[in-house]
TrEMBL record:
Organism name: Oribacterium parvum ACB1
Protein's name in the database: Membrane protein YkvI
Residue ranges crossing the lipid bilayer per the database entry: 34-62, 83-103, 115-134, 141-161, 188-208, 220-242, 262-286, 298-317, 323-344
Keyword Transmembrane helix: yes
Keyword set, alphabetical order: Membrane, Transmembrane, Transmembrane helix
InterPro entries hit by this protein: YkvI-like
Length: 413
C-alpha cells in the first residue's frame, strides 16, 4: 500500500510541476516579480495545493474515472460541465505544446541543440511511452520527481549556506521582471488554478486507477505537500539569484551551471524529464477524453495532437508562458470552485463508499484465503455492496476481485 501511495503521489507531482516550475520560468513571472511578498504567496499556495491534491485524487478514485469528463458529468451541471470540459480540452492541448516548447528551450540552453530538435525528441517520447501499459506509465511519470526534489535542495544549500544578500537590490531587480498579474494574491490563485487546469485531467485518471479511497486521499495529500515544498524552495532560490536569472528562459538551469558542469548536465536532463512528464500527461488525457467510447481512436488522436502541438511550439516558450498561462488560470477559477463544492457535497458519500469498498475487499479476501470460509451469505453481501456502490456493479466487483487476486499472487511469489 505504501508503495502505491508513493507511486501515485510522485506521478501527481510529476504531472503538476512540469516545465515552468522545474525550469523556474513561471515562478519568475508569478512570484519572484513580487519580491518578498511573492515568497509569502508561495506559502499560502502550498496550503491550497495540499488541500486540492487530496480532493482531486480522491474524486478520481471515488468515481473510478478514466477521463475528466466522467468526474465533471457527476459534479457539475450540464452547462458548467460543458464549459469546463471544453476548457480542459483546450488547456491540455495548449499547455501540451508549451511543454514541447520548453523541451526545445531546455536542450538549446544546455547543449546548444537546435530548438526544433529538442521539441522533436520530447514529442517522439510522448508517442512512444503511450504504448506502455498504465502501471508502467505511472512509474515513468514518477521517475524524475525524487531527482528534482533532491537537486533543488542541493541548489538551495549552494544558494544560502554562508552567503549574505542585499535585499534592497533583490527587491529592485525583482520589480523589473514583468508579471502578467496585478498583485501577488491574484497571482497565487491564478497560478494554482492553472496547475489545476493542467493537472486535473491526468490526476483524475491517476485517482481512477486507485480502488482504495484511503490510498487516494493519502496520495493526494503527499503529492500536494511535495509540490508545495518544491514551489516555495525554488521561489526562494530564484529570488536570491534574481540578478543572474532575470533574463534567461530556464532560470534554474542558469543557477545549476554555477555549481558544476556535471550537476548542470544532470539538472538539464531532469528538467527535460519533467517537461516530458507534463507533456505526456496532457496529451494522454486529451486522447483519453476523445476516445473513451472508441478506444481504437486513442493512438490516432494522441499522435495527431502531438504532431500539431509540435508545430505550434515554435511560438516560443517564454512568450507562451506569459500569454497562455494567465488566461488558463482565470478559467481555472471556475474549476476550483466546482471541485470545492463537489467535495463539500460528496464528503459523506465518499466516506460511505470508502467503507463499502473496504468491506467488499474483506469479503472477497475470504474466497482466496485458505484459512477463511467464503459463505453464501458473504457472496450475497458482496453482491449487494456492489449494487450499492457509486460505480457500475459488475465493474466494481470485477476490479476488487482482481485487486485481491493480485495481492495473493504477489504474496505467493
Amino acid at each position: 500500500m505504501l508503495k502505491r501511495i508513493l507511486n501515485i503521489s510522485l506521478a501527481y507531482v510529476g504531472v503538476v510541476i512540469g516545465a515552468g516550475l522545474s525550469s523556474g520560468q513561471d515562478l519568475m513571472q508569478y512570484f519572484v516579480s513580487f519580491g518578498k511578498w511573492g515568497i509569502i504567496g508561495t506559502i499560502v499556495l502550498g496550503i491550497i495545493s495540499v488541500v486540492f491534491g487530496k480532493i482531486i485524487i480522491t474524486l478520481g478514485s471515488y468515481y473510478r474515472s478514466n477521463d475528466h469528463f466522467e468526474v465533471l458529468s457527476q459534479i457539475a451541471g450540464p452547462i458548467t460541465n460543458k464549459i469546463l470540459d471544453i476548457a480542459l480540452i483546450i488547456s491540455c492541448f495548449v499547455v501540451g505544446f508549451v511543454m514541447i516548447a520548453g523541451a526545445g528551450s531546455n536542450l538549446n540552453q544546455q547543449f546548444g541543440l537546435p530548438f526544433w530538435a529538442g521539441g522533436l525528441i520530447c514529442a517522439a517520447l510522448v508517442i512512444l511511452v503511450s504504448f506502455l501499459d498504465f502501471d508502467k506509465i505511472t512509474s515513468v511519470l514518477g521517475i524524475f520527481t525524487p531527482l528534482v526534489f533532491v537537486m533543488i535542495i542541493i541548489i538551495a544549500f549552494y544558494t544560502f549556506i554562508g552567503k549574505s544578500f542585499d535585499f534592497e537590490e533583490l527587491e529592485a531587480i525583482s520589480a523589473t521582471i514583468p508579471s502578467p498579474m496585478p498583485n501577488v494574491w491574484v497571482s497565487l490563485l491564478n497560478y494554482f488554478a492553472l496547475t489545476a487546469m493542467t493537472g486535473v485531467s491526468m490526476a483524475f485518471v491517476l485517482g481512477g486507477s486507485i480502488m482504495r479511497i484511503g490510498v487516494a486521499e493519502k496520495s493526494g495529500l503527499l503529492g500536494g505537500f511535495v509540490v508545495s515544498i518544491i514551489i516555495t524552495v525554488a521561489t526562494c532560490i530564484l529570488y536570491a539569484n534574481v540578478k543572474l536569472v532575470s533574463t534567461v528562459d530556464i532560470p534554474m538551469l542558469a543557477i545549476a551551471e554555477q555549481i558544476h558542469p556535471v550537476f548542470s548536465l544532470v539538472y538539464a536532463l531532469t528538467i527535460f524529464g519533467l517537461i516530458f512528464n507534463t507533456a505526456f500527461s496532457l496529451f494522454y488525457a486529451l486522447a483519453k477524453r476523445f476516445s473513451s467510447d472508441k478506444p481504437k481512436r486513442f493512438y490516432p488522436i494522441l499522435i495527431g495532437a502531438v504532431v500539431i502541438g509540435y508545430g505550434l511550439s515554435f511560438m516560443g516558450f517564454k512568450s507562451l508562458v506569459s500569454v497562455m498561462y494567465p488566461l488558463l488560470g482565470y478559467i481555472g477559477f471556475l474549476m476550483l470552485f466546482i471541485l470545492a463544492i463537489a467535495w463539500v457535497k460528496e464528503r459523506s458519500n465518499i466516506k460511505g463508499e470508502k467503507h463499502l469498498r473496504r468491506k467488499m475487499i474483506q469479503l472477497i479476501t475470504k474466497k482466496y484465503d485458505d484459512n477463511q470460509e467464503y459463505t453464501k451469505g458473504d457472496r450475497e453481501e458482496f453482491h449487494q455492496l456492489g449494487e450499492d456502490s457509486i460505480v457500475d456493479t459488475q465493474s466494481i466487483k470485477s476490479d476488487i476481485k482482481d485487486l485481491v487476486k493480485e495481492k495473493f499472487n504477489d504474496n505467493t511469489r
